[in-house]
Amino acid sequence: MNQGHEELIAKISAAAKEAGKIMLEATDIDNKTSEKGSYSNPVTEYDKRVQAYLFGEMKKILPEANFLGEEDGNDVFKDEYKKGWLFVIDPIDGTNNFVHGFRPSTTSIGLFLDGKPYIGVIYNPYADELFTAERGHGAYRNGRKIMSSDKPLSHSLVSMGTAIYYADSIVNRAFKTAEYYRDKCVDIRRVGVASYDFCLVAMGVNGLYFEPTLALWDIAAGTVILEEAGGKVTDMDGNEIDFTGYTSITAVSRGVLAEGNYFPDFI
């Protein structure tokens, strides 16, 4: 690859913004929505349209890359993805938000190198927020460098994902974990957009984010952005993530990380 990282990120960002226009111009969403196993796990024609657009644009930007995305059957990590370049795309992260008019929803584009997140681009078109990061080069919101908060957990907001359409044991873990953090933080929030939850920690709004199961496309871009903002991402047991499939997530700010002992004592 001959492109410098700034040019590469600029091209990916431009495509993310164009994808955001598709979201903003969406109409009659209810009649363009179907279910992926349950009513609480929808997919829209716009998810598919955005993914097709982004796959096409990313192919122009980096022809040698592989592609993994949430829609259209390109959703299984293969051993061959551990070498070279891989785009991991969530065309509309927060589809339930998108369908119901609850903001935000985002477009999330992660670029892996040799099986690890290398570049992250997340765009929230409703607030025109563009988050970008490259491994070793810092994290940015609309071109301005961001850093996660240095506050302890007791002075921080916590965000959570409920994983509501998964098995009862997974959902129960989410709410049991929320109960654990209830008296240890300022308050608990539920955004419904995993990629944006990473960004909220990265830009110092929240101090910790957890979710008991997420797909690779949910975490691909956000992990780079948060870690370049001084935070850390592990699974909910404190283990490093192998970036090959579904995983739980605990994502923390600089302050919570420095304080330590932030994992529930029942895990």
Please describe the structure with a list of short key phrases separated by commas or semicolons.
single chain; five-stranded mixed beta sheet; 7 helices; globular; seven-stranded mixed beta sheet
How does this model look, in words?
The chain has 267 residues and is α+β, with helices and mostly antiparallel strands. It is 32% helix and 27% strand. It is built from seven helices and 14 strands. The protein has helices at residues 5-24, 45-61, 95-100, 168-182, 194-202, 216-228, 254-259, and strands at residues 33-35, 42-44, 66-69, 85-93, 106-113, 116-124, 129-134, 139-141, 144-146, 157-160, 187-189, 208-214, 232-234, 247-252. The strands form three sheets. It has a seven-stranded mixed beta sheet, with helices on both faces. A hairpin with a 2-residue loop joins strand 5 (106-113) and strand 6 (116-124). The protein starts with a helix and ends in an 8-residue tail after the last helix. The model has no long low-confidence stretch (mean pLDDT 93).
